[in-house]
Amino acid sequence: PVYHNDVTAAFVNTVPQWANIKAGDFAQARHFNQRVYSGLMPDGSTWVNTVAADPFATNNNQPKSIMETRSINTNEYRLQTSADLTINIAKGLDFKSLASSYINYSSTLDFAKRNSTGDGVLNKGVYTNKTFIDLLTENTFTYNKKIKEHSINVLAGFTAQKTTIKDEQATGLDYPSDNITTLNNALQLDKAGTFNLKNQIGLLSYLGRVNYSYGNKYLLSASFRADGSSYFAKGNKWGYFPSISAGWLMKQEKFLNDVTWLNNLKLRASYGISGNNRIVDNAFSNLLYPANYPFNSGNGITGSGQAGSTTIIGNPEVTWESTFQTNIGLDAVLLKNRITLGVDIYVSKTDKLLQQQSAMAFTGVPAFWNNIGSLRNRGYEIELTTVNIEKRNFKWVTSGNFSHNKNEIIELGKEAFLLNQGERTEVYMNKVGNPLVAFYGFKTDGVWLSQADINAAIAKGLTSGVGATLFVPGGLKLVDINGDNVIDNNDRTQIGSPYPDFTWGLTNSFTYKAFDLGFTFQGVQGGSLINGDINYNESKRYNKEYSDNRWISPNNPGDGKTPYSTVGFNAMLTDYVVEDASYYALREVLLGYKFPASLAKSIGLGSIRLYASAQNLFFHSAKNYRSLNPEARTNSGPYATSLIDGYQRGAFPTAKSFLFGIDINF
Predict the structure, then answer these.
(1) Most-buried pick from 14, 264, 487, 493 (CB within 10 A)?
(2) Residue by residue, what is the 3-state secondary structure of 410-465?
(3) Neighbours of 356 (CB within 10 A)
(4) Interval 626-642: pLDDT, tens
């Protein structure tokens, strides 16, 4: 028989946006929204500063101007469908073929009116059309056989996947009217913002699996797959990934038959290899791109032929990353199914890490993809569900989870450590024996309270090897880690890491007659982030949240820890901008009511349920965190590699959402 499993079609017309979809523009402007900062002095008087320049100079890039002059409208069309065919060839032997497709087309107009970001700036329209087509076919043979206490299941086959991505963009400038936004009304074409791209990605896989069971007590499974990816060059396309697992249903043994408080007990273990091919397209080759440099024009109107990539050097030797993982687990059900426990302990080693590696400066390109080093992960996960109360009309169930993971670099090729740099020249260290990423910078010891304080330190021989701007009243006081009386790069050390100590979640569910109520908490404890907003905001001194206790003068030193500004330290990473990323949140509250079955049946329905839910009603971050959302991370540009992690700037706050709905079963 042929089964047509699923068809989904959708049209989405987004609400016009007044903010750039790149995190940063609006959020950053929101941080800077006070043109005049006023605050209380330690003596209770009011301090007002109107001398400093506006944070956006003569630009109009304030929240109000963004909302009034910038709009982004997107129309999106989606189609998803799948069908499969199953043929019974012989007793126990079946052939199944499945085909699926996903098509997504979106059209976007991003239009900024005249003078939108500054006086005299031309109006600008960016027209983007994107097409994404994913085609997948799976073809497998399955054989099932049972002989007395022995059961066997065998699967073999192949899958093929092809993804086509088209991206077209045209940018127009200088429209006679802000109200007529079609491209043909633009008086200029911005070649630097006009392009047409097409890329195809393929994945071919051969796979096999054997499952064996004896007496429904002893379980064994072995599998193997070979994956060929178009992300890699010829000779490196294929990766091979075997795995094996075993399970023992101990409760089925006779020696546990009389243990009535134990309803189920299973011990399991596994070992396997998995692969990762997630890199950018064509990372193995050097391609030519349009080089429309803005010669003779600030808008890139003059074409300049073709040139190599300015972001990535091709590496034909790059290949699959492989992770070897061992797992031991235990599942138990106790006390008449009132307690369910699951415990997993794992150790994994990842070889040939796929990472962007810094290139030599003379290449003119910052990085290339490479297989570098090995990483070990160790950890455990615990899940526990308890039925606390179970009465005729009332039930209360609690589910919780707890996990801990520790990673460690065990090899970096011929290097003992690597240093990578972010957008604000902050440095990230990857060192053998340390976590994959560590923040590498200076420790601080408050601020210089006065010039006399500085003169006393200099008289004792303290000097600066990284610029005289270190020694200014109200500036950060860097710690001389190695004790040589010189503040220089040799005093940098590990000042944080983005990885948490543990994560957790807790859900409580209640049912009373036809009503149901549930709420879920989730949290992260430990780990740090680099708050990039601080250098931007404190250097402008417009946001009270960043300047409350700052140094103002020797007579008004604030808390002695908050500098007058971080000007002069923007190119240096210090622990002053490293903050605790811990948080806990009320993720969801759900309330429902199920109508009586007789009512549903009387109108020809199976069941009717009304529900309302709310997400992120409560969010609590660490005391020393000074931004909007500790979950947010910058992950584009230099942050697109896992060797640089934990940086945040211009983060949007966690959104609250409310949903009302009805479930109807026919």
Answers:
(1) 487
(2) EECCCCCEEEEECCCCCEEEEECCCCCCEEEEECEEEECCCHHHHHHHHHCCCEEC
(3) 23
(4) 888 999 998 887 887 88
Contact 533, 418 (CB under 8 A): no
- C-alpha 427/C-alpha 439 separation (Å) is 6
What are the helix (H) ranges across 54-124?
A: 63-69
User: What percentage of the chain exceeds 70 in pLDDT?
Assistant: 82
**What are the C-alpha distances in Å from 361 to residues 284, 366, 367, 573, 627?**
20, 7, 10, 22, 35
Q: How many domains does the chain have?
A: 1
The domain that contains 634 carries what CATH number? 2.40.170
0.90 exceeded by pTM = no
List the structure tokens of 468. Answer: 């005289």
Instruction: Determine the Cα–Cα distance for residues 190 and 290; give it in Å rounded to an integer.
Output: 13
Of 205-209, 333-337, 627-631, which range is least confident? 627-631
Range of the domain at 390: 2-665
Instruction: Please measure the distance between the N-terminal and C-terminal CA atoms of the chain and give it in whole angstroms.
Output: 25
Strand partners for 379: 346, 405
Chain mean pLDDT for the chain = 85
Q: How many CB atoms lie within 10 A of CB 585?
A: 20
Segments of 190-338 assigned E as strands: 195-214, 218-229, 238-249, 262-276, 288-290, 306-308, 312-313, 321-334
